[in-house]
Amino acid sequence: MTSADVIDPVQLSIFRHRFMGVAEQMGRVLQNVSISANIKERLDFTCAIFTPEGDLVANAPHVPAMIGSMAFAVRSQIAEWQGKLQDGDVLLSNTPAFGGVHLPDLTVITPVFDSDGKEIIFWAASRGHHADVGGILPGSMPPLSKLLSEEGAVFDSYLLVRAGNFDEEELHRMLCVEPARFPGSSGSRCFQDNVTDLKAQVAANHCGIRLVRQLIEEYSMDVVQMYMRAIQDSAELAVRNLLKRLAHDHNGEVISAVDYMDDGTPIMLKVTINSSDGSAIFDFTGTGPEIYGNWNAPVAICNSAVIFALRCMVNSDIPLNQGCIKPVQLIIPDRSLLRPSFEAAVCAGNVLTSQRIVDVIFKSFKICAASQGCMNNFTFGNDGENGFGYYETIAGGSGGGPGWAGTSGVHTNMTNTRITDPESLERRYPVILRRFSLRDGSGGGGMYPGGEGVIRDVELRLPMSVSILSERRSFAPYGMAGGANGKRGKNTWITKAGRHISVGGKNSIRVQPGDRFVIETPGGGGYGVPGEPKKSSVDQSTVMPSFVPIANGSVAANRSLAEEV
């Protein structure tokens, strides 16, 4: 019998995998029950479970930008609804003021009560990116938005389900009527997709609740909650050990870096590590002010980026949970790009600025060259009775590092979504995919070259709005240790008459049938001087010997996996 008094290392490993398995099963339910291409096919969602206080316990390996930020949303709802919830209630939220990151990411949060229905014993939550929640343009990712109200429906703290009853009538008002009150805005252009996907999120949460209750029946409440805390403590210890090693490796030198958004706004970071206890201060003082645009990033995004970067650098197999951030104090200036006012537009902060934060962190520790630093957000659609909205993110190149070349045609760092299959894209929407290939020569040269970006050429078959939200069109992904920069991305509108028009990094156009939109994504930066013997300039015996690039960017894996790669 498992004791609630002593942590057993074997049981700790078992519980870690059991908790992660719960989140993975939640994700499978969400994918199976949902209907939209964005959630069902692109897998733009995340599921997780949280302690009674709202700390992240475990998540499935879904979208990093969502994972580290969801605790902010859960804690906001805990503060708002303290003592007011009952068994069968489900909450919905998406605003930065309540821990959200941008409006299309709808977070469904379910409290789980004890057998007496009095005390909340844990929380289940799922966050999905809905392809349209209203706003001034189809896809709810308008490139030129200046205010949050232009980006779609707002849910601060909405009771979506009361005692098991799904409130579709009020949901329709919130999604379809309220956003249309603002000049130039529309309500949701695909309300039935929203409804089905939200019900799928509710179902996913119930799956998580059922599985954790099975754990409680098997081991007891005290044991389950003890191991919920223990796996966070384990992650915290691993991060503290990492920070101690990094302090030793940098041997008193200043750990700092700066990089720039395409409009010139700096993101500055200085890291101070206490080598005794493995704590650290990540100070973003000097970062530019809130901008009159939409790549402002709510504080939850910066938190998520730091958690992700630290988890990447840890040289052990630990879950990404709240323990990863406990040793770190974040200093983020008020009214800055990384802590904007609540009325500021933010739709691009989650998908563009988050990537740059990770690049700055890796640059400060000299881990690897820059990734494509972008998600290349492409949307199209129409308003009106038969309106629709489509949204996708497009891969690029990852950066090379000390011992590995960058990966080509892959999502990096803060995103991990699929691309919609060509057959499904053309069946669901009035478009033709003319080309989808690697972009030869876009990766930076070096001893370990950067990965190649991609080319995505889409022909539009109806008059419609087309929008692009992208970065690294002005400032190239940096190389490191003598490696060359990756190529900048570019976006081109090709009219049916044959005109080739550059639309810049952030723009919206009205196309006609036969027009094409071509996105060429950035490559990753190269690492090391080309032609030199391929050996790492970093002492691999003391610094992350198994830091290897896998799938969604450079991640830490154990040594055996590194050898397999």
UniProtKB/TrEMBL annotation:
CC terms in the record's Gene Ontology section: cytosol
One annotated GO molecular function: 5-oxoprolinase (ATP-hydrolyzing) activity
Domain of life: Eukaryota
All copies of domain Hydantoinase B/oxoprolinase, residue ranges: 8-530
InterPro entries: Hydantoinase_B (IPR003692), Oxoprolinase-like (IPR045079)
Pfam families in the record: Hydantoinase_B
Gene Ontology biological-process annotations: glutathione metabolic process
Listed name of the protein: Hydantoinase B/oxoprolinase domain-containing protein
Organism, as annotated: Penicillium freii
Phylogenetic classification of the source organism: Eukaryota, Fungi, Dikarya, Ascomycota, Pezizomycotina
